[in-house]
Design brief:
By secondary structure, the protein is an alpha/beta fold. 49% of the residues lie in helices and 13% in strands. The chain has a five-stranded parallel sheet, sandwiched between helices.
């Protein structure tokens, strides 16, 4: 039996998704989360086969949340469910390793088709999503810890604050920052913060 985790902060949409998935050909056990922290806690169990992730749920900083999940759980199948159908965003989602993009305007039948494609080893994206994102390619080079450090940099945290939050030495933070700058081909914290801003999802 497949284990599916629905991650969305809108109860009505979670109910609609659950209803669509109830008619899948394969039997599924469905769980729900409404914050990104709950998603991370749930994924630590290692039982989830497919995560249906809303990019704008509380605690999920746009594409940064997807990057962290893909980095920390590389074997997990992830499909994005979003009201935004921005072509560049969908291209980035695909480059980051998600297996599908499901618009929130999709019918129950379309949702089931997308999920069944993923379960059968295929991907499910709109035709226009084939363009690769250079930024997403660069971000895929970062380790899970480096992604956390990048997020703290974007929030304006000092090295000492980052070290305390991650329970690591300040020298380790400096080493991570040097690696981040090199991999992203940037020179300062302002540029790092701008990159994280680019990962936000347009309204």
């Amino acid at each position: 039996m497949y284990q599916i985790l629905i991650a969305d902060d809108h109860p009505l949409f979670r109910t609609a998704l659950r209803g669509a998935l109830a008619e899948l050909k394969e039997p599924c056990n469905i769980s729900e989360c409404e914050t990104f922290d709950q998603v991370q806690e749930n994924l630590r169990s290692g039982d989830t086969d497919l995560l249906l992730l809303d990019l704008k749920m509380p605690g999920n900083n746009g594409l940064m949340g997807l990057m962290r999940i893909r980095s920390e759980h590389p074997q997990l199948a992830v499909a994005i469910v979003s009201a935004s159908e921005d072509q560049s965003v969908i291209g980035s989602i695909r480059t980051m390793g998600a297996l599908g993009f499901i618009p929130k305007a999709s019918s129950p039948a379309e949702i089931r088709t997308a999920v069944e494609h993923i379960f059968s080893g295929r991907i499910s994206f709109p035709e226009f999503s084939h363009t690769k994102s250079d930024l997403a390619e660069k971000l895929r080079q970062l380790t899970p810890q480096q992604l956390r450090v990048l997020q703290f940099i974007a929030e304006g945290a000092l090295n000492k604050q980052i070290a305390y939050a991650l329970n690591i030495k300040e020298t380790t933070v400096k080493s991570h920052i040097s690696d981040i700058f090199r991999k992203l081909n940037i020179n300062n914290r302002t540029q790092a913060a701008l990159i994280v801003q680019e990962l936000a999802i347009p309204d």
